[in-house]
Amino acid sequence: MNQIIIKDHQVQGVLPKGITFDEQVLSIQKNQTFQDPIKITLKDDNNESLEIVVGESAEVKIILEIASGDINPNTYNIKLTGKPNANVKYLLVCDLASKNANLQHYFVAERDSQLDLIGGFVSNVIHAKMNARLVGQGANVKLQAVAISSTDNNQVIDIEIVHAAPNSTGTMHNIAIANANGRVILNGVEKILKGMKQADAYQSLKGIIASDQAIIEVNPILLIDEYDVKAGHGATIGKLDENSVYYLMSRGLTRKDAERLMINGFLNPIISEITDEPLKERFVSLVNQRL
Amino acid sequence: MSTLKISNLHVSIEDKQILKGVNLIVNSGEVHAIMGPNGTGKSTLASALMGHPKYEVTDGEVFLDDQNLLELEVDERARAGLFLAMQYPAEVPGVTNSDFMRSSLKAKNDGQPIPLFDFIAKYEKAAKELKMREDLPHRYLNEGFSGGEKKRNEILQLKMLKPKFAVLDEIDSGLDIDALRVVGENVNSMVNSNFGCILITHYQRILDHIKPTNVHIMIDGKIVLSGGQELIEKIDQNGYEWVKDELGIDFVETDNE
Predict the structure, then answer these.
(1) Is the pTM of this model over 0.90?
(2) What is the ipTM of this complex?
(3) Is B155 helix (H, G, I), strand (E, B) or coil?
(4) Contact (CB<8Å) A246/B108
(5) Is A230 exposed, middle or buried (0-12, 13-18, 19+ CB in 10 A)?
(6) Second label for A130, Cα 20 to 30 Å away, from A20, A243, A247, B240?
(7) Minimal Cα distance from B93: which residue of A?
């Protein structure tokens, strides 16, 4: 794996070939293919901003880790652009101890680019926005977010896809899990602008309540200003199925283990897409700490 | 050798009395068939033994050797050595059969994980004996399984977990003749001096494959008649009407248990 650590707006060490960093913009050169994931860690604790540009026809897997034990207010502004025909698999892990964190993450998908985006939120108190704008024909964005809240955690997550080009495809699958007195508000917005014919939008929001004090709110919103489109959405909130818990317990699993297995099961489709093993393990253990 | 002792068991569901004093003693090495018309409480007995939260025990005792099962949670009963092959096993999306099975074995093994290669070898062998699909370990637990596959998956878990006692609740319903033979043979192969079994059924077919040592007839929440295999023959030929006449009980058959 390629590791890039950015601290105080400076890259620590040497950048891999084909990547440049200038004025807080990290550029992946066009036509470059990276087999191994590139892991970017933001070390600066506060008011960080970063732009990542993936060049034309480049193919890359990026893992961005925003982790900090700082409990003061934190603000992050991140932007990722996929140039025409770029192919990006992207995983964001947001693990902030801050009592008041704010993350604005914008994505731009140009013509024929494929962005496969996963956001994992295991922060304390955060308002996070992941906004993907499809600006070129044939752009395809798949956005999946998972937020897990436990004791005293309060996470508000806005997931938005804006179709600003015809023939664009945007899919989102988001999962909120709340345990103890944790709280998650999940707003899913998919917007198709006027004239963006043949746009294809789908969103699903799922909330799982694992305790009586937990609060989850999901708001699925479709804003469509064009007739010739395909769009669908679904939202559910529920407790873990008691019958399934009983079934697992009847094979000797404690209630806690049964619930944990089931919640990991819900996340399985998303977790299985994290190809980097150490990161997958870390993500799974972060999730399980909150269950 | 172990003993499962059920005494004077009374069970209600939503304030409706279903079991009205069941007495039964099962020892390791024995297979007890419990037969009876629909709606007489057979499945209630199975669920109450396992501790399904919907069923309330209002009187009576259940002991597995010197452990009072009714004081234990569902998972504790399982770890004490009780297994229930369910009539309608739950479907659990996202949880693979192999993850589930490994977790269960770990729980049974006092939290000690089973070495992966050991597990795979045993699991594949057991799945093969039950003629299950090769991709079974990676499929989600019972999700999208046919009725027959679900039943075989119950027996697969039984084979892996090797409990002291198993209650098989209508393991034969929904099975075609070949699957019935496979399930029957596999259960038969488990019966030994460390394993006893309660077989709940209202058909006779499964009893061609698993020969019970004891046969009980349950009607209206009680075991009204106990005997040997001769009872099966009698039910086969005459249904349950004769029990009414012989014992002077009246009952109405219903579809729901």
Answers:
(1) no
(2) 0.94
(3) helix
(4) no
(5) exposed
(6) A20
(7) A265
